Amino acid sequence: MLSFFTIITSINLFGQDDKNDDAFFIRSIYDKALTEGKCYDWLTHLTTKIGGRLAGSPQAAAAVEYTRQMLDTIGLDSVWLQPCLVPHWVRGDKEKVRIVNSKSMGSMNLNALALGNSVGTPKGGLTAEVIEVKSLDEVVRLGHENIKGKIVFYNRPMDPKQIRTFNAYGGAVDQRVFGASKAALFGAVAVLVRSMTTRLDDFPHTGVLVYDDKIEKIPALAISTNDSELLSNLLKKEPIQVFMESNCRKLADVQSYNVIGEIKGREFPEEIILVGGHLDSWDVGSGAHDDGAGCVHAMDVLQLLKRLSYQPKRTIRCVLFMNEENGLVGGLEYAKVSNEKNEFHLAAIESDAGGFTPRGFSCDGEDAIFTEKFKKVITWLPLLEAYDLSLSKGGSGADISPLKSQNGLLFGFRPDSQRYFDYHHTILDTIDAVNKRELELGAASITSLVYLIDKYGL
Amino acid sequence: MLSFFTIITSINLFGQDDKNDDAFFIRSIYDKALTEGKCYDWLTHLTTKIGGRLAGSPQAAAAVEYTRQMLDTIGLDSVWLQPCLVPHWVRGDKEKVRIVNSKSMGSMNLNALALGNSVGTPKGGLTAEVIEVKSLDEVVRLGHENIKGKIVFYNRPMDPKQIRTFNAYGGAVDQRVFGASKAALFGAVAVLVRSMTTRLDDFPHTGVLVYDDKIEKIPALAISTNDSELLSNLLKKEPIQVFMESNCRKLADVQSYNVIGEIKGREFPEEIILVGGHLDSWDVGSGAHDDGAGCVHAMDVLQLLKRLSYQPKRTIRCVLFMNEENGLVGGLEYAKVSNEKNEFHLAAIESDAGGFTPRGFSCDGEDAIFTEKFKKVITWLPLLEAYDLSLSKGGSGADISPLKSQNGLLFGFRPDSQRYFDYHHTILDTIDAVNKRELELGAASITSLVYLIDKYGL
Known about the structure:
Two copies of one chain form a homodimer.
Chain A: H1 4-36, H2 39-50, H3 58-72, E1 78-90, E2 96-102, E3 106-109, E4 112-114, E5 126-133, H4 136-147, E6 151-154, H5 165-170, H6 174-185, E7 190-194, E8 220-223, H7 225-237, E9 241-245, E10 249-263, E11 268-278, H8 288-307, E12 314-321, H9 329-340, E13 344-350, E14 358-364, H10 367-378, H11 381-385, E15 390-393, E16 409-415, H12 420-423, H13 436-456
Parallel strand pairs in A: 5-6, 6-7, 7-8, 11-12, 11-13, 13-16, 14-15
Antiparallel strand pairs in A: 1-10, 2-3, 2-9, 4-8, 5-9, 10-12, 14-16
Helix pairs in contact in A: 1-8, 1-13, 2-8, 4-6, 8-13
């Protein structure tokens, strides 16, 4: 007969063994990722053979087909495409933005990119005086009398003092997203926006704008931070007129797809653990960090688990969402279909912050269930800290956010953020900006979290 | 009269205030570093106007003069040069390494760099058969009969499974440092070494070798990892002869200097807190991460404290050491002089792991004093964790290691290590490989640690 002492000891030993098993398996995940990870090769193909893949573009279709084929090579239980009808915005000819009347500088071209969803200028372009503002509120304060007929130039920089650059982005991006309609409300003819980066350089950053449908749509373009500084300095000295021309426009919606693959769970197949990123990117650059990295992370999670002959208790599903950048159609459609099928996502993890060295995960969920479930997650921290990973409360990812109502936990993969906005939405977001080891460590980190959720539930 | 409860409350409040003061001051350090840090501008000058600065070279002299002048602009209490006589090794003409007899490949040049301190080949070069080994021990096992007259090719890769790349480096670099003399002991005529990086590319990595003076000195060159793979594959199929030529050599020692600046302490001027890096670099590339970053970090610590009008209790001293790469003369001389003067270094912090995003500090010290002092350091962790910094036991830096016997604590600044060996000792170690924010965050991290040591002692 077992004494009380023996029972206690056994329990402790069992706990210890389990912990050792976990440490051992997570170590094997990292070993595999750093030696037989596929993410870097996949990302190289996606970025150099396919390139930028804005929703509705032929490249987006190629990316759907390529990733479907790659998922097919892994030996999953099923791989399928989920239809979604996506918007199709095209940039058209290279944008022109030019200072035309400076006494000190003469005529001078500015480095510019039309914002996503923007309407084009009238044919032949437009020329108007520029007025600089630092916020949407300032436009309201200046009102019709100062704004009417002008080009509003939004020039509030991202705050360099923020340690995490996404906070700096969050503090400035309202100008890009809502600036056009706000300016149009007071009679502006167009908008220029300082590019979203803390760096001073010559590369304009595109990104989505959202029009208020009740207000006239005016063209909106980003200019580089160096050109923003220059324009601002000129405006301190003299009135400046700018010529701009762009024939960007929206075409008819296009049939596209979310790309999905999964390994069916042995014990609780109805409990889904989703890993995902978004397959579309902007048209400039090749969407290496945003969000090719997230897609190949998610794909490599399944590849690594298969290579390790891991048989999950729960269903592990990889989803590559379409049209995150300018519509979120893929994410919304995925959640809609999932709810219709009464699916339950125990957890969803999105990687959409780049392929840099992992720093941890943020975690989100409905108030009613969050505290209890997060308590469990926190018990895994020692296993993750061994790989320099932290856990915090915070947002997850745009594509998976509609799944929150299923009462699982949502996670955002959080890599180091310092370099992200050097590349984000520019021609610089290419494979050259991605370090192979950093990318592989991301895949290993996410796989480790998936393993723990699968083994212990939430 | 104060009640017991009031006293307790007051003490708690005082503690809380102090903690708030610290959090506030550290926040102001980060704000300053990210908006008025000088480190990136200094590093840009050091790398683009001066370049690679191997000890004894004219560029090293220029770097001494430039950094002295820059320290002079900060408003320190004193700036001086500390003489040290350094070795002067020169690379000479571009090295030639060529496969000469491959049936499958014909004649083919390999990307090579002589190792630092290597002797040159005989005039006109040498040609010999290549034998591949994976370790120094394998050379011993193979012995005279297999090694004599041959070129020994050390080809054990850095282990990609190590999470921290410095561990992978530590596990492979014996081949580069000691491989030549070990091979010569068994009659080899020269040595080729696989470059020290986990990456597969075409860039050879130089670095120091150390000869055993009792053994004949034979030439040693690094070849790129791609060429190492190629050579290894050829050797599986056929005997390979390689021609190599290099006229690298040692010249007479040269007078050089450590560059030093300090702010005198108000209360305990005899307690020195040192921050440092090494000013010399290899001749290829421009020593941006190794160790220009460390130098401008150390300089910026003083600059930021001055800008913040901080008046230290203890003496804060910046030391830019000469000749870390191929002799450590500067570090040894600094410690010798310091001991002669009966100085006491309460703490010394070295930044010599690159200008990447900070991850924390490792801490070292004599056994007799370490545990007690480190306990105190650990109490500061919450203040540092707010900036994603950790503290661990571990080595510090080569230049400051001779100060250990003064019974203070030694710290190594630990930035993210994933990209370091992409650039280390190659032509790629340039300012383009440095991210401004990552570099500035390093300066802020080190300044924060200096502030805490200064305020609370050890």
